[in-house]
Amino acid sequence: MARRRKRKSRRRQEGRRILEHVPQYSIESGEEKPVTAARKFIQAEGIAPPALLLVKRNEHTTDRYFWAEKGLFGAQYVEENHFLFPSLRTLEAPAGAELLAVASR
Description:
Blueprint: H1 10-19, E1 24-28, H2 34-45, E2 51-56, E3 62-68, E4 71-74, H3 75-80, H4 86-103
Parallel strand pairs: 1-2
Antiparallel strand pairs: 2-3, 3-4
């Protein structure tokens, strides 16, 4: 029996492209839970939003978090709902302007 490919959400793909332009920080969680390690790292480094944190839980698993003005969110949620975050709208506008410029040629 042939396997069907999983459908890729356009909205999530667009959110992923927008998050590529956000600063990324890679950390290891150590003995703490990944979200606690992310919060402590943000506090210690004084990271300003928006930022993407990649927290390595173990050698196989990395959790992704998005640091926004409203708090800390899972990166997958932000990819799917990027339009709810004002800090990402500023990153989204130039990309849309480039597409319009190319289309008008």
